[in-house]
Design goal:
Blueprint (H helix, E strand, L loop, with lengths): L1 H8 L2 H64 L2 H9 L2 H14 L5 E5 L2 H5 L5 H10 L8 E5 L2 E11 L6 E10 L4 H5 L7 E6 L7 E6 L7 E5 L6 E6 L13 H35 L7 H23 L6 H7 L10 E4 L6 H17 L4 E6 L5 H13 L4 E7 L2 H10 L6 E4 L8 E8 L2 E2 L2 H13 L9 E3 L3 H11 L7 E5 L9 H7 L3 E5 L21 H9 L4 E5 L6 E5 L4 E2 L1 H15 L4 E5 L4 H9 L3 E5 L3 H11 L3 E3 L5 E3 L9 H15 L3 H6 L5 E2 L3 E4 L5 H11 L6 E3 L4 E5 L2 E7 L5 E8 L2 H18 L8
Parallel strand pairs: 10-11, 10-12, 11-15, 16-17, 16-18, 21-22, 21-23
Antiparallel strand pairs: 1-4, 2-3, 3-4, 5-6, 5-8, 7-8, 9-13, 12-13, 13-14, 18-19, 19-20, 23-24, 25-30, 26-30, 27-28, 28-29, 29-30
Helix pairs in contact: 1-8, 2-8, 3-4, 8-9, 11-12, 18-19
Length: 782
């Protein structure tokens, strides 16, 4: 018996089995905790927060009902009517002072005979609109506008005679939105963050007032009953758990059951291991076991081996070494999948990915995935294998065909009513690469979720079924949506370089429909990209476009990447307008219509953009580089515009919030037309600087992030201000420099900007000195 126990203690399979059972038990307990404690508590918390938000909305509604009633009563005063009729300024001033004493909630009163009395010296379009309504005898609800950085609330009330047969003018009351803190607090303040938001047609919702402490608690918005477009959003405080106890009774009972079951399984494992250990010792002549028992043990072991072999044969089990070769970790990037199309992104890989995504969709109680592909030579076969894998799980496929990524996103959001999908593309990578961009539940996948795909593919735990395959054309609907949104009063002459990418057949036709004269360049789809790589962020790839723009005397040139979600512009004189400068153009235009909006940009962008956004009353929001990071931050901040230096530009004011190179290009043409300026003239109107393009320095893919960590830890930049959000961006008084690990290639990327060439040279020299002291064998091109 002692021999058995000694051998049993040396059995790694038993220890692994016990650890697995414990792990599964912990996992099950966590799932039960989520289902039986967290989810019910969340429901209670949401209900509690909703009730509080309703109380706050009712308080605000009651305040305005009372205020509007008092203003209406004041407007019926004969003295007001007489003052407006007689144009008695002194009398009007006396009345205004009396009203301020009676209604302390109001900061200013104005008695106005006509709209012109006000609009002649004010650009307050909100007040003008309210006056226009009240001068017809209507009682418009309150509205707010931001003036000189302060949100003001306006209420206009008609001033009429006793029988309302004659309107002499309007009483315009105003006060800062911050004055709403008192009615919101009421007799018993509600803890948490409370925000008042105003939505106006054609504008994104804007926050006009907020009070309380920021928190990450539950968030609920409730409309204010008597003010159109207003809502009160309430976020519960972080300590809400103190007020709402967690329901743990059922969980404790379930936890007891899971624990007992785990102990029973562990006991069985130990018993079985002892059983096998005895058999092995008997076979070795060291144990005492009857021939009959030995025969039974051997037969059982052989049967288990046969089952394992059969599972491997049908793909249910895969040796870890084989899985690593089939699904290499390096292709699972931060926000998509990319790799060499011959050795990494293979037919087998595509089919396995299809099975994994299809299984995930089915298990999430969804039914359909959208699928599309770009124009690369390997894309059709990969798309075919991907669809085969998806269908084999019982998940349906809506096939959009060969289209650009923005058209794919448009189709998902507008035509197919599908929440998830995948497009075969390697975007701007060379022709030898391919990959997949994946949308899950309407958003880009988190890096951790993409990494999880590799583990799931290796497990090969897939659903079985027969999905249905259908096709849908979305290109015409996409083009129609843009032509319905964009108006170009004076269409320019445009040269379009589509780099032989999938946007080639679409861009020239759409721009011609908008009235432009179009000279197409490399617009035939050719997945070999014979003239240059489909990457407009590389200046070398823009040389042909610059030459054609000059030769044709065109107004501008537009360069797109392989799947159409990036754009770079060329002026008529041949200057490159990088996407961060395009964002400056778009930001100035948008903030004139939506002051106070957030604008999102990445760490590679010019600091002139940040300065411009602030000067036009916007809020600059910097985030990590990567189209998925920009897209998430736009959704988080409800920003109407965002973009990154590489060319991904997102509009959510009049468009759908995904990156779209062609739509961004048409918005640029619209702005040029409205301003009646050339692109050169628009760029010249901005403050100048000296900047480099993005500089890529090849390094080992598995070392690039380690290099950045070492640079952040060891580099010394004197008085420079360090931003470690994404790599290291160092801000100096006369410029800045950036070094970071590329998300899409085996390289470090750098960029520099300064007030003049000498300052740029100095900053580059400092970076070169620090980087080479940490990575001696690196070769820097500056």
């Amino acid at each position: 018996m002692l021999t058995v126990l000694r051998n049993l203690a040396k059995t790694p399979i038993l220890l692994l089995g016990i650890m697995t059972v414990v792990g599964v038990a912990i996992f099950a307990a966590n799932k039960l905790y989520q289902k039986q404690v967290i989810q019910p508590w969340n429901s209670l918390a949401v209900k509690h927060t909703s009730e509080q938000a309703k109380v706050l909305a009712d308080r605000l509604s009651a305040h305005f009902i009372s205020l509007e009633k008092q203003l209406k009563e004041a407007s019926l005063s004969p003295s007001l009517f007489q003052a407006l009729r007689s144009v008695d300024q002194q009398q009007a001033k006396t009345i205004q002072n009396n009203l301020l004493q009676k209604l302390p909630a109001v900061q200013e009163f104005l008695l106005l005979r006509s709209i012109e009395d006000y609009s002649a010296h004010s650009e307050n379009f909100v007040a003008v609109d309210l006056l226009r309504q009240s001068n017809t005898g209507a009682y418009p609800h309150a509205a707010a506008i931001q003036l000189d950085g302060v949100w003001m609330v306006y209420i206009a009330t008609p001033v009429a005679n006793n029988d309302n047969s004659e309107i002499a003018g309007s009483l315009l009351a105003s006060f800062p939105a911050s004055a709403l803190n008192k009615p919101l607090a009421g007799s018993q303040p509600i803890p948490g963050l409370t925000t008042i938001r105003q939505s106006t047609r054609g504008f994104a919702p804007q926050t006009i007032f907020s009070q309380g402490k920021n928190s990450t608690g539950h968030h609920v918005a409730v409309a204010v009953k008597n003010i159109t477009g207003w809502e009160v959003a309430h976020t519960a405080p972080d300590n809400l758990a103190n007020d709402i106890p967690k329901p743990v009774t059922y969980f404790l009972a379930s936890l007891t059951g899971v624990s007992l079951l785990a102990l029973a399984v562990i006991g069985s494992l130990i018993a079985y291991s002892m059983y096998l250990t005895k058999a092995n010792l008997a076979l070795a002549g060291e144990g005492d076991i009857s021939p009959k028992d030995l025969e039974r043990m051997v037969a059982k072991k052989l049967a288990q081996q046969r089952r394992t072999a059969n599972q491997k044969k049908h793909g249910m089990l895969t040796d870890s070494t084989d899985a690593t070769e089939l699904y290499p970790n390096e292709v699972f990037r931060n926000y998509d999948i990319r790799g060499d199309a011959q050795t990494q992104i293979t037919i087998e890989f595509a089919e396995a990915l299809g099975k994994t995504l299809g299984t995930r969709t089915v298990r999430a109680s969804q039914t359909t995935l959208a699928v599309a592909a770009d124009g690369r030579t390997t894309s059709p076969e990969l798309q075919k294998a991907l669809i085969k894998g998806i269908l084999s799980t019982g998940c349906d496929v809506v096939d959009f065909g060969c289209i650009p990524t923005p058209v794919f996103n448009f189709g998902m959001q507008n035509l197919a009513n599908i929440e998830s999908g995948v497009i075969v593309t390697a975007s701007h990578n060379p022709a030898s690469d391919n990959g997949f961009k994946i949308i899950i539940d309407g958003g880009v996948m988190e890096p951790s979720a993409i990494a999880q795909l590799a583990e799931t593919m290796c497990l090969a735990d897939w659903q079985n079924g027969d999905g249905e395959h259908s096709r849908q054309d979305v290109v015409e609907a996409y083009c129609a949506a843009i032509t319905n949104d964009i108006v170009i009063a004076k269409p320019p002459h445009v040269v379009t370089d589509c780099a032989n990418g999938v946007l080639g057949p679409i861009a020239p036709r759409l721009l011609s429909t908008l009235g432009c004269e179009v000279t197409p360049l490399y617009c035939d789809v050719d997945g070999k990209f014979p003239y240059h790589d489909p990457d407009p962020s590389n200046p070398d790839n823009l040389m042909d476009l610059i030459a054609i723009v000059k030769h044709e005397n065109a107004d501008l040139g537009l360069a797109f990447d392989g799947d159409g979600d990036r754009v770079v512009a060329i002026t008529g004189s041949g200057r490159i307008v990088w996407p961060d400068e395009l964002l400056m153009i778009f930001s100035r235009d948008l903030l004139a219509k939506q002051p106070g909006s957030d604008i999102v940009f990445d760490v590679k962008s010019t600091r002139r953009l940040r300065n411009l956004i602030s000067s036009y009353g916007g809020r600059p929001v910097m985030c990590k580089t990567g189209h998925s990071n920009i897209r998430r931050k736009i959704k988080e901040t409800e920003a109407p515009l965002g973009g990154e230096y590489s060319g991904h530009i997102f509009f959510s004011d009049r468009w759908f919030g995904f990156d779209d190179g062609l739509y961004a290009a048409t918005r640029l043409l619209e702005i040029m037309s409205l301003r009646e300026q050339s692109l050169d003239e628009i760029i010249d109107s901005f403050e100048g600087s000296t900047a480099t393009a993005e500089i890529k320095v090849p390094v080992a893919n598995d070392k690039k992030f380690d290099f950045i960590e070492q640079i952040i830890e060891k580099a010394k930049f004197g008085q420079g201000s360090l931003n470690k959000m994404d790599g290291l961006r160092v801000e100096f008084s006369d410029g800045w420099g950036l070094v970071r690990a590329s998300n899409t290639s085996a390289s470090l990327t750098l960029r520099f900007e300064a007030d003049n060439k000498q300052a740029l040279k100095n900053i580059q020299g400092l970076f070169r000195e620090q980087i080479t002291s940490i990575i001696p064998d690196i070769t820097l091109p500056f």
